[in-house]
Structures
1.
Amino acid sequence: MEEKLFSLEKFDLLLDTEWIARNFIYLDEVDSTNSFLLKSKDIKINGSVALSEKQNEGRGRLDRTWLSARGLNLTFSVLFTKLKKIEKLNFLNMGSSLVVAQTLENLYALKTELKWPNDVLINKKKISGILLESVSSGSKITRVVLGIGINVNQPIFHGDFRIEPTSIKIETGNYGDKERILAEVLNRLELMIDKIDENPDSMLDDWRERCRMIGDEVEVRQNDKSKYGIFDDIDKDGNLLLKVKGKIEKINFGDISLT
Amino acid sequence: MDINLVKKLVKVLEESKLSELEVEQEGLKVKLSKGTAFKGETFAPHHFVPQPQFHGIELKESNEVKDKAEPAAQAKDLHEVKSPIVGSFYRAPSPDAEPYVRVGDRVSTGTVLCIVEAMKLMNEIISEVDGEIVKILVENGQPVEYNQPLFLVKI
């Protein structure tokens, strides 16, 4: 298995952002890049990026584990200190999955699919997971951290998974270019943030186009309970609209799967 | 109506923090009220001990006192932590983990109190004040609305 560590020089040449990743923190090993940026209060620069070759406690929703072998994949987080409107964060969450999907389509001609609210799938398998975390005090958001994991060069995944994982290596047979993927994701992310400020509807349209579960019968698992219905659409805020016995129910959290 | 019952009711009213008492029994209605208006500042509804229920008699709190007392008392020593978003309320970082805080815990500014999740955005709510958790108003895993009170913190 080829372990190829991240080349900062190469990445820097490909990065075309104004503010994202202009402060870049490279970590050989860390518990999780999200936890690192959430806890490191001395890091205050908007758009700071932390990348780690290995996460020992990579996390997903509700502390689920995100496994990634050292040096093979991309695990990184972006810090936002100027996002004050909490209602915009849902757009950032969905917009980020769109950015990852667009990057993989562009660089590797892969056909991607988005799973509500922010997983990126290829052939029904998970290639990227996103976890957005924020800290609020009163009505103010003090810190927002966007964590993204992309499976790039891992040739095999061992274990039991809620959704089977895949990687660029598995899907294309070739090694993916981590520096190129990261630079393109961040370049697109910066543009996406402008877009969700100006025209969130257009981002939601692009997202909707890649969500192939719309119209299907789905199960929505919310903690210990399940709801069943038709995935009717997403609304203007990004909530899932579930049609149950002819009535529309708004869903704003949970795990969805086809029934 | 039995005069002894009325006497008993007068006693109940005198000994209570109520300003008004209205009783209806077998078609007869008696309304008792205290002569001087109760000053709300020292009265907090959360310290209220539930009164015993009489058969067929309804104890009524004065709404006027309650309305005045609530904001004053809360502004003075009780801080309400509210949800900044619509979402799902979690007391712990994961289903198997220990809760961030329990009733009786001392918290300080910056202590993590809970998580509210909306669309896979996990928002940690930290305390704005130093104090003690006196009440947790929402059960783990329940949906919460925008601005819904989640905790009461005694400052």
2.
Amino acid sequence: MTLKSALTYLLSFMGYVLLQAALLNKLVIANSIFCFFYVGFIFLLPLNSSRMLQLLLGFAAGFVIDLFGDSIGVHMISCTLAMFIRPFWQQLVLGDIKEMPGFINIQGVTIFRFFTFTMPLLLIHHFVIFYLDAIGTDFSFSLLPKALFSAFFTFVVLLSIQLFVTSFTKKK
Amino acid sequence: MRGLLRFIYKYRAFELFILLEVISVWLLVSNNRYYNVSYLNTTNSVVATTNQRIFNTQKYFSLQEVNEKLAQENALLREQLTRLLYSESYRKLPVNDSLLDRYELIPAKVERNSTAKNHNIILLDKGKTHGIESGMGVVGPQGVIGQIKYVSNNFSSAISLLHTDTRISSLLTRDGTIGTTQWDGKDIGIAKLKYIPRHVPIAEGDTVITSGFNSVFPEGIMIGYVQRIDVKKNESFYDIDIALSTSFHNLNMTYIVKDKLGAEIDSLTTISEE
């Protein structure tokens, strides 16, 4: 890994995590639909990044978010699980893409493929978080819809940022 | 030997995955089990200071509302003070010094607060240096708020009443029946009042206050009002919903309750239980 790419990783890590801790942790619809936008950082890591690095970065991102959310362990477990699954899913959905410099972005894949790649990972990640939070309570109600709506919410935020960035770079 | 090494190398991602998951699960479990031993929470100084910066910026925009609330609380306190000064019972009260100033209230500002999870935590700006200890109660102008869990030098975090593990010994003012208030994780304005036997007379609108049966909260702090009463077949207790008096989505000023006789009471309880 070159110094430049290491710096890119570090900056985007801090950007995603700080934005999540400062802004999006507050943004909860109807007290039950969450946006875990920070997963954009780990789910969209470059296609050719190594599996070990992906796992470690997922673990680290979960750790920092847990510190800010007073939920140590919860995001760590779900992020690490999602990052373990990611390479298999990537092989299946984006396996034919040989070359894509930098983070996975909407310019490199179509919106539809972007959706099929991120959505299942988001669902697993969100569901595990809500499940861990609900352990010990009577959670016969609404775990699955909660995860589903939250995953959609996160996806919409991720997509809007992608589209925003795309239109910005095109103008240049 | 070489085969073994090759095997370990081949499945290294899987092994790392298992290792990381084990660490995470261990942190999750041990953090729930032991109080006040972990620094991996919002009382950690780096996290707390960052949070404080963020929150201060946000707070600037709600100053107006905060002012109004403080004015309201002032008015209420003044009213209570006048009533107390002129009440007959106050003059006749036998003076017992140690009981009169048993509780000390330490004002604390809310630095961060959540309401959307099942395990909600409130971060307060007072810590060890201000005499805060794990286990102290937290009350607000409108009633009970929670209980201190972690303490660092300058911050403490409290488990909110909106935390499914919080249990508060409660008293029905109508006839003094003791029950337990616990939140069920569904609605941030409603908690359950448990263990009220079916023979007890009770009506919607009855007041629920703290019982003072432990050294966490003084007696008579407001919890809420009975909102809905239900009787299930074959159950010996009522199913009661209470509307909480505190609105948790806009907490601001709180008081941490320090019980000066707490240690004495606790040691006595331990001795008599043995």
3.
Amino acid sequence: MQSDKTTSTDSKDAPLLSIRDLHKSFGELEVLSGVDIEVARGEKLCIIGPSGSGKTTLLRCINYLEKPTSGHIWIDGTLIGEKKVGDRYVHLNDYELARERREIGFVFQRFNLFPHLTALQNVTIAPRKVLGIAPAEAEAKGKEMLDKVGLGHKVNEYPERLSGGQQQRVAIARVLAMQPKLMLFDEATSALDPELVGEVLRVMRELAQEGRTMVVVTHEIQFASEVSDRVIFMDQGKIVEEGPPSAILTNARHERTRAFLSQITDR
Amino acid sequence: MLDLVEVYRENIASWLPEMGMACLGTLKLTFVSFLLAIAVGLLVALLRISTHRTIRGVALTYIEVARGMPALVILYIVYFVPPQVAPGVKWLAFSSFTAAVIGLAIHGGAILAEIFRSGIEALHRGQREAALSLGMTPTKAMAYIILPQATRIVLPPVANYAIGLLKDTAVCSLIAAPELMLRAKDLASSSFQPMAVFLLAAALYFVMSYPLALGARYLEMRLNYSR
Amino acid sequence: MGFWANMIKEFPYFMSVLLHGAVTTITVAVGALAFALVVGLVVALLKMSPFRVVRFVTSAYIELLRGTPALAQLFVIYFGLPDVGIDVAPVTAAIVGLGINGSAYLAEVYRAGIESIHKGQVEAALSLGMTPARAMQYIILPQAVRVMLPPITNFSIVLLKDTALVSVVAAPEIMFYARNLVTETFLSMQVYLLAALIYLSMTIPMARVVAMLERKRKAWR
């Protein structure tokens, strides 16, 4: 088993993300009831499931926006979010977490762009203020990222002047500029008008083809079947079924999985 | 009532310069108290959202108490109590100006703390989460993301507070602070023309506060538009 | 030490005197509130008048009263009016002074409350065949009242604190008695502390009520 604060010099076979027996309760309510996941470098994992199944909570635990009630998470062989104090594990606070979060990119359902900054400033603020990169270099990289998501012509626009799809793409560029090892997508297209969903999925598809490690929580079954290496179906805080998209999405073994899928595709 | 016109014609030449000078005292008092109140308010607001329960409790108590009392009581306590309770300690015997500034800042700090807090809380939680997810420490998140946006939100209520502060300086006349109301009271009794003098004083307060009111309204319009 | 010994000794006497003043404080506050609520409503309605002159005069009334300190207004009423032949009793001056001051503030609260009701509500009411008056009575005002409750309650708290000012027009309220007690006994700390406690005992519960009203309103939306 992996040890705590050692940076791994493992071979490329070691999983990038490792989650063991994750539990999360909000007061009385247990939202995650023992989740185990491993994601290899370059793998695309899609998580599907009904609302309340815990998939968003799971994602938010990975970058420690939610602190797990129990269980451990390793990224690249290093235990994250906790430190060992004597015999026990203690959660890190937001100051200590900041360092670890640099390597994890999180794309929110509601974009959460900074409204007082232009698109370019949104993308460059973290490289400049967190990584200490010089403004000129950060701007160059920022423009490159915005170009990559198709918004090179909108660098100086404020978020309120951008459509939902454009805002989400800026949010993705913002994450890319930090060059994360792992990218997490929390229902990235759920808050978008239907005609704007395509442009964001297009960007996500490109990123997948570049070999990035991605964990995507989504309702877009078509997208999941095209892009993911593995699909996980979650319900009531547990993983019910997991496997390659061809297996799960067309030929699920569990009743609940099939019920959920037929509900979604019937819509 | 026509007497008033006569009264003014006779006296305006001597009253206006005197009361005008006192207006400077009012403006000075307003300005200094405002700065101090902002500092106090910011500090208390940050303490109020602290993660430590005791610190939060202290800040909360201060806010409730300082806001729940008339400014006059705070002024009296600051001005009269220290000399009586600690007669030897010379630096505690505040001048009326200093006592006025301290009193107004204590009262105003509580009001502003609440304004700042609701400004910070008005921000969607997602802003903080996005900042933290990018690897910012809570301090950086506050400095680059939260406070810049919160400042825009609180500007109108802070401007309104400033106007209220200007008017509250009149209360400081009761502890003999050097401002307009005190001068007006003296003038009213020495000239036996209270109506004329106090109306003039009111007019001068209006002249001082109306530009501020217009500015505040302009700010509100500008800020609502650009959001 | 000396502080506590004096405090315990004088507590009954101080409290009885100060509570006497509290009666006046509450009287003035309630009177001024009633005055302000009524006059404020009149002013708010006048401001919606179709006549430009009326609108201008009402605006001037509001701007002037909101742009000058309450203390100055009290002085004009209490010291100025006798000067031109009208004699005023202290408590009357207090109620009228604070009431007029409050009416200007409440007029704005009324206006904001009525304007906050979505135009769609008026349109729906009118399309159902209601006259503007009925629309106002059954649809607009009930909703507006809910919106206005927190600011009006907040205003009452401010009004309560402003009564401290009327001590200068010799109205026998808390601060008036407090100052006398201090002159009499030199125990400024104890006296003012007790006075502060009495104010807090009134304002803090009221503030809790405001907070509760705000919470209910948010839930109701």
4.
Amino acid sequence: MNKPKHSNWPLGLAVIALLIAVPFAYLTRPTQAPKLQAASALPVKAAHVDHHDIVKGPFKTGQEVTRACLACHKDAATDVMKTSHWTWESKPAVVGWRKEPVTIGKINQINNFCIGTQGNENKCMACHVGFGWEEGRAKQQANAENVDCLVCHADPGVYSKALWGNPGPKVDLLAAARSVRASTRENCGKCHFDGGGGNGVKHGDLDESLYFPSRSLDVHMGGKYNLQCSDCHVTRKHQILGRMVADNFHIDPAEQASCEQCHKGVVHSDERINKHLSSVACQTCHIPAIAREEPTKVNWDWSKAGQKGREDDHYTYLKIKGEFSYASDFAPTYLWFNGNNEYRYILGDPIAQSGPTYINKPAGSIADPKARIFPFKVHTAKQPYDKVNGYLLQPVTAGKGGFWTTFDWNKSFEMAAPITGLTYSGQYGFTETVMYWATTHMVQGSDAALHCDDCHNVGGSKDSESPLRMDWKALGYPGDPVQWGGRRLK
Amino acid sequence: MKTSNRNSLMRWNSLGLLLAGAVVWSAAQAATPALQAMHPSVALLDEQGVNVLKSGQAVSTLKTCGQCHDASYITSHAFHADLGLSQFGTAAKGSWNASNGFFGRWDPLRYRYLTLAGDELLDLSTPEWLMANGKRVVGGGPANTARNGQPLQALAPNANDPEASMLSTDGKRVAWDWKASGTMEMNCFLCHIAKPNLAARAEAIGAGRFGDANTATLLGLGIVESGGGKAKGWNWNRAAFTADGLLEGRKLALQDPSNANCAACHGEAHPGGSTPIQVSACDLDQPQTATTGQVVSGLRIKLSGVNLANKESLNRSWDVHAERQLQCTDCHHARNNPAHARGDLGNRPSHLRYDPRTVDIAEYLQKPDHDLARGPGARSHASAVPQGDMRRCDTCHDASTHATWLPYVATHMAALACETCHIPQQHAPAIQAYDWTVLTADAQPAKTCRGVQGEPGNVKSLVDGYVPVLLARGEAQSGSSGLAPYNLITSFYWVVDDAQGRTRPVRLVDLQTAFFGSGDSKKPIGQHAYAAEILVAFDTDKDGHLSAAELRVDTPQKQEAVKARLLGLGLKNPRMDGQVQPYAINHGVARGAHVLRDCAACHNKQSRMQEGMALASFAPVLPHLEPGANVSTSGDLVRSSDGALRYQPVPARDALYVFGSSRIGWVDAIGLLAFLGTLVGVSGHGLLRYLAWRKRPHHAEPTHPVQMYDAYRRFWHWLQAISIVTLLATGIVIHRPDWFDADAFPAMVTLHNVLAVLLVVNAALSLFYHLATERMREYLPRPQGFIHDSMRQSAYYLSGIFKGEPHPFEKRPDDRMNPIQKLTYFGILNVLLPLQIATGALIWGAQYRPDWVALLGGLPVIGPLHALAAWFFATFIVGHVYLTTTGPTPLEGIRAMVTGVEEVEDHV
């Protein structure tokens, strides 16, 4: 008989278990990389602190409120003053057609909507994050107490701004100060949804329908997520992520908001769609239409302003502004775009010799590896220019004695001359300009995004009522990439 | 009305194309100098070969296009033109079909019967066949050639010749003059120009002016205008031609056939764009959609202008290939087109994977083979030309990517056509049944449409689609057969015999006379009044109207009434008959999340394989199944007591065995009996032992510890035991998923395979061990005295054990098993285990070596064998575990197998 040996049966059992479990786990492993939960990348915000018992009034002016805020939030004002929300201009940029670096912003440049703010601060600064513009730019910008905390942080239902950026006359400043909380879509939207002088006029993808959007209007802001602006435009020390194409020349990608902040990794389960990512921006397929619910302005003819006896109508003609046309729920214009402008009109630049003058022109081409096909809203306008000097003019419109009072163009330009630094020859005309606004809101989910059939049109299969969404030849392709293949980068 | 909508849609499509082309063209003009059109300018010639500008006659496509393209080759290699004419023969007794094509095979849906030579009664003569069907006839074949091969124009007008006569509106035979009407040559323009004028062509054909049809196709392009009838000729627009009298290729916009060209006859291939599409339900003007519910469109289903059930969830496009911009001609191309050369097809030697040698493009353009590539689902009777030479899914797609989630990929690919899972449901309505045994007030059959609740044409009716039935279809290339989705259309009709005893369907004009009385056919639709005898028999609630519920031959009185009317017309032996025809579904493909991925859909008691299809809510007679040449309709037609008809598939008849769904009742019954019987037996034996032990005085049996099992033996035993038990557990879930959570099925299959491999490796290693160390002899019963020793052991189990007697044989490490045990293990290890392993291996190997498996009877034999052996294994385990309790203490046996040391009774 053998001597009884000690048995190590737990080891045997473990080996058996492994022999079964390991192959089984290997064969049933998930083969697709799990879709990273985008929601996990949302910024974590500080908990809300109710200021009803903290803030003690009374407050007679906005500056008094700011002083009270700064008692605890000591750095808040100086932080704000470093940002473009305060300065209304970009950092100095070196542009190829000027010797000195230039800054670009609403403070000193023009667009083809209301044209320019210089001389019109009484009205325009209602959307500035500061008070006290009646003192002039230098004084206003130097004073930290001019920072308006309430416009972004108070409940918009109890606070509003009026002339020179100051609080409205009927506003209860104490109530407003007590209502402060983290900014909501309503705070940002009060200015950004109504830019250009009305609901949805300017951007096309930002308007008041985004206050209470449905999921089918915007999948982030509507539906179950109800994201606020600051969830994507992440803000640290009042420095808000995101830059507008209209008011910049080159944009540092680190300062720009992008889909990839949250949507990382393999974003589509369809391989073919993922192949598009190298030449098509997310926005192109996920934003099929601009101004889905509220109309946006697509053309503004200043030359018709000031006509006597013509009735005012918000959507077609206003005596102070001229003739315009609106459009809603239309497809954007698609251009190659690498995130920068290749040209931005600087005050004093000559107008184009032929064709429209570009206020801004997105940079990118089919040969640029950083460029993607991107959707834009195009706004055309007819605005005043100096016939002799050959540059665009910035009139005083809302300002005292400006065009909106006198309906006299010559006087407006003469008044503007010392303010803007543009000499006025005495002869004005109207010329065509065009401006490109990037479309990045009113995002659709995968159930409503574009699919193959919407851009590709092999065999001429589209019916005549649907214009082709993509003009392949204009984009630089020899033909439809389904047949010709995608672009080949060196 | 529908036709003109469709045609105007076509016109808009083509106009859009022209406009888009013009825009692009003019844009290109700005950029680059104008490029010449690829197609050279041609002179348009008439039948005599004279330039139409001189003669002012209709254009002859064969003479015109034949200047460069080999017209005789094309017309003789085109099943679209031939339509069965080349196979036309006299019908055999019992069959009234003269060919397998559109011309000669009776279509119960369109009902009119193409009369053969020698038939007494004329239904559809050749000219009337052309007038009725000509919209969908490309010309050539029966449109200009007689059944004996002569040109039609050589036939003399003869009221008794079904090829040169016609039935007038008052039912009399009149002669037809082909020379006057002209015939239709194969119409190149119909498919090869961007904007063929389908309406004008259809109008000319419908009026019998066949010679005008081809020229009418060119109306509206600014090339020609109607001269006001054939006598006055055609007004050719001189300005459209060059100085030399040639017409520029670009003016005609000659092109490869586009989807719109195909859709002109086949129907419902929608262009892209933002206009919501509308589907014309069960409308035979769109035959492909009407018969199957297929819609070829890249648009999202939920954006359609159709009242669909659960519309918001229908996120996918109608057809993913249309969405991805494939055209009809990408798959259905000319067989000798060098751009689509199938170098991987055909009789090539095995050392070549692909043969790139093709026809030169110039030769191809001269002799393009118009026998287009067709898939295996094509109505096999449409032409004698072999089908199945079209590129199939696996030409472009790699099915092995299924392996990431699908066990047994190769088995599934062999048993199922791709369409089964990739077209899981149809979302548009399709025809279900046509009952021509009755006529409605507007002289139509009683029609039912599946997939829609309510009237098909009404936009308010809810379209809920239908699930196709799966029929086994043979693939010409691979020779294998797989299940593919089909729609089954049932039709019922009256048939009669003629004087020669040939069976024919009752002519429409006779049926109308029977139901409405003579002379009624002249009345406009909707104003037919039923004949008195019909009304009396059918109008059961006596309200003067025949409702849908009354309008069916469901009583002997109704049947006799109609019979009497038919007999009164001089027709002999009227009786009802019916047929069920399969229509293949190949378009409307889905991808990704919308594909059938749920194992439980087939691997379950309620399985897609056995689902069948409702054929008719009332069947007046049991129809026969009309199979295609390559589709198996092996199921049963089941008629319930209320007359409803159903098709019930029987997968076993197609040699299909689906785990989890197929089961043989008696196999499971035997197995369960053995298992339960043993369980009951050992429970009883154990109970008796316990009772006997209680009665006995208790004293501990003296034992001494023995190292009975070494480490390897214990390891392989427990690995074997755990594997077998888990195999049995996973096996029962696979066999009867309806008893468990059906979602576990794929994981169970994977686990079963893992364990099976472990078991085989374990058993093989153990076999080697026992052979190499000669321990095998421990399992072999000694032949001498075997019976005697077995009897002693049996006596112990049957009586001695109750008395507390010691075991008859001492258990020693080198002789651990009593004779009965040795015999049992011998059987288990040499019979049952190899059988189970072999059947299991064959089940897995069936995907790679279907021929070996088929030799043994296929899966329908091997599957149940595997199940039976599994039941016996389960039975063995019950007995085995029980018998381990026969040691000094009940758990001693198991403990010993774990620790290796056993307390053995001291033997005297």
